[in-house]
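queue> pop job 88
queue> type: inverse folding (structure -> sequence)
queue> payload:
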C-alpha cells in the first residue's frame, strides 16, 4: 500500500462502507496516513477486508466529496492536503443605513428592551479576523490565558480609549472582562470590605449596579438626583449616614434617562468622595461619541474606577469589556480577575486585539453612531410632542408618560401592540418609588420603516390613555 496504515477489520455493526470511511479518518487522525499518501486500489482493499469493491468505492467517493481524499485519473486516490481558509485583506465595504440586519423585511413585533446595533460592516471584519485567528492564532490554542497572551488586547484597549480623559493609562492598568457587567463585579470584589458594605447608586440607575452589589451581600442605597445627576447634598448625607464604600454612576450617558453630569457637578462629587473616603465606579458603556467632561479616574485620583465594553459600539456578542483601576490599584483588580477565571479565552483576546486596532474600526463605529441617530430622529419626529428626553448619539430615549398612563399599564398596552419597552421600575430599588416613565432602546436591527411604525403605534397609545387607571 506504500504506507504504514493498516485498515481496521470490518465489524458487523452499521454499513460496511461507513466502517471503511471511519477507518481511513482514524488513520489520518493518528498520523498513519499523511497528506499525499496513496491509498490502496479499490480491489486490493476490498480483497484485504473481504468486502465488495463497490463498498470500498462508495467509501472513497464519500471521502473525496468531503475533501478528505483526492482522486487523480490514472494515478489513484490520495490523502488530500489540509484545507486552509482563504482570508482576504481587502478593505471591508461599509454598509449604509438601509443595509441593517433585517432591513429588507418589515416587522410588526419590535423589541425596545436593549439597543440593537445596525450591521454596517463590522460583521464582515469580525468574520475576517476570526478566520485569521483560526488559521494562525498568535496566542496558540494549547495554553492557559496569561498576562503575556492578553497583552496585545490590553494595548488595543489603550488604543481604543485614545482621547478619553482617564489620566495616565498603560496597558498593565487594563483588566479584561466578560463584558461591562463582569467588569463592575470585578471592581466590587476588589474594593468592598466587611460583612455588609454599602453601595450608593443614583435613584434611577443601571440595574447591573444593584444586582452586582446584591450578589456580594452589599446594601444598596439610592441617592436623590436631578437633571445633572446625583445631588451633592444628598450624596453627602447618604455617605455619612451609611458609611458608604462605593458610589456608582454613569456620568457621560446616564442610564436610563440619557442625562449628562457636567464637570462642575463631578468636581463636587469627587470632593465628597475624598471627604468620606469612598470609591467611585464609572460605567461608560453607552458613550458613542467623545467625552464631554473628564472621567472620575482623572478628577478623583486614587478612587476613580472605570468600566466599559464594545457591546454598544461594535457588537455585544463577543462579551468583551474592560475595567481600569485608579493609579496604584491595578494589581488588586488584576488579581481579582485572575483568581476568578484566569483570564479571557486566548482566541477571544487575539480576535479583539485585531478588532480594536483594525484600520476601519473608527469608520465603522462612526457609521453605527450615524445609523442610531437616524432612528432616534425618527422617534423624535413621531413622539416629539410628548415629554421625551433624547440625544442624537445615545441609543435609547426616556419618555415621561402623560396624565392617564401609569408605566406598568403602558408597557402592557405596548406589548399588546407588539412593542416591548422597559418601565422605570426596572431602574429603581425594589422599595423605591418609580416615576411614570419608560425607556425605549433603539432597535436598528429592524428596518427604519418597521421602527417608525412601532413609534406611531406608541403615539396612538399616548394619544388615548385609558379612562380608568389601575392602581
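queue> result:
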Amino acid at each position: 500500500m506504500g504506507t504504514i496504515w493498516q485498515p481496521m477489520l470490518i465489524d458487523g455493526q452499521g454499513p460496511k462502507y461507513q466502517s471503511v470511511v471511519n477507518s481511513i479518518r482514524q488513520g489520518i487522525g493518528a498520523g498513519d496516513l499523511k497528506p499525499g499518501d496513496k491509498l490502496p486500489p479499490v480491489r486490493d482493499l476490498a480483497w484485504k477486508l473481504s468486502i465488495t469493491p463497490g463498498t470500498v468505492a462508495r467509501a472513497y467517493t464519500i471521502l473525496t466529496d468531503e475533501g478528505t481524499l483526492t482522486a487523480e485519473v490514472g494515478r489513484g486516490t490520495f490523502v488530500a492536503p489540509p484545507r486552509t481558509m482563504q482570508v482576504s485583506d481587502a478593505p471591508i465595504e461599509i454598509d449604509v443605513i438601509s443595509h441593517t440586519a433585517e432591513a429588507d423585511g418589515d416587522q410588526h413585533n419590535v423589541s425596545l428592551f436593549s439597543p440593537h446595533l445596525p450591521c454596517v460592516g463590522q460583521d464582515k471584519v469580525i468574520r475576517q479576523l476570526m478566520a485569521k485567528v483560526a488559521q494562525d492564532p498568535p496566542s496558540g490554542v494549547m495554553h492557559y490565558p496569561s498576562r503575556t497572551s492578553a497583552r496585545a488586547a490590553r494595548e488595543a484597549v489603550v488604543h481604543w480609549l485614545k482621547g478619553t480623559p482617564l489620566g495616565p493609562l498603560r496597558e498593565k492598568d487594563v483588566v479584561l472582562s466578560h463584558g461591562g457587567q463582569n467588569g463592575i463585579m470585578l471592581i466590587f470584589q476588589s474594593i468592598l470590605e466587611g460583612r455588609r458594605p454599602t453601595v450608593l447608586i443614583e435613584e434611577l440607575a443601571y440595574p447591573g449596579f444593584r444586582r452586582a452589589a446584591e450578589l456580594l451581600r452589599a446594601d444598596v442605597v439610592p441617592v436623590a438626583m436631578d437633571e445633572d445627576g446625583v445631588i451633592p447634598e444628598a450624596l453627602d448625607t447618604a455617605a455619612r449616614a451609611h458609611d458608604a464604600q462605593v458610589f456608582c454612576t454613569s456620568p457621560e450617558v446616564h442610564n436610563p434617562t440619557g442625562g449628562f453630569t457636567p464637570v462642575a457637578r463631578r468636581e463636587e462629587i469627587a470632593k465628597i468622595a475624598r471627604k468620606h473616603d469612598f470609591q467611585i465606579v464609572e460605567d461608560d458603556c453607552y458613550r458613542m461619541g467623545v467625552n464631554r467632561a473628564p472621567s472620575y479616574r482623572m478628577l478623583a485620583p486614587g478612587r476613580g474606577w472605570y468600566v466599559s465594553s464594545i457591546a454598544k459600539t461594535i457588537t455585544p456578542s463577543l462579551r468583551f469589556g474592560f475595567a481600569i483601576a485608579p493609579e496604584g490599584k491595578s494589581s488588586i483588580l488584576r488579581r481579582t480577575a485572575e483568581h476568578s477565571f484566569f483570564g479571557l479565552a486566548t482566541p477571544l483576546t487575539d480576535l479583539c486585539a485585531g478588532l480594536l486596532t483594525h484600520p476601519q474600526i473608527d469608520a465603522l463605529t462612526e457609521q453605527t453612531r450615524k445609523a442610531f441617530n437616524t432612528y432616534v430622529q425618527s422617534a423624535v419626529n413621531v413622539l416629539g410632542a410628548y415629554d421625551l428626553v433624547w440625544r442624537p448619539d445615545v441609543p435609547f430615549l426616556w419618555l415621561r408618560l402623560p396624565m392617564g398612563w401609569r408605566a406598568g399599564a403602558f408597557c402592557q398596552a405596548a406589548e399588546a401592540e407588539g412593542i416591548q419597552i422597559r418601565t422605570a421600575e426596572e431602574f429603581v430599588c425594589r422599595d423605591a418609588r418609580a416615576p411614570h416613565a419608560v425607556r425605549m432602546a433603539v432597535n436598528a436591527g429592524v428596518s427604519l420603516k418597521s421602527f417608525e411604525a412601532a413609534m406611531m403605534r406608541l403615539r396612538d397609545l399616548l394619544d388615548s390613555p385609558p379612562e380608568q387607571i389601575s392602581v
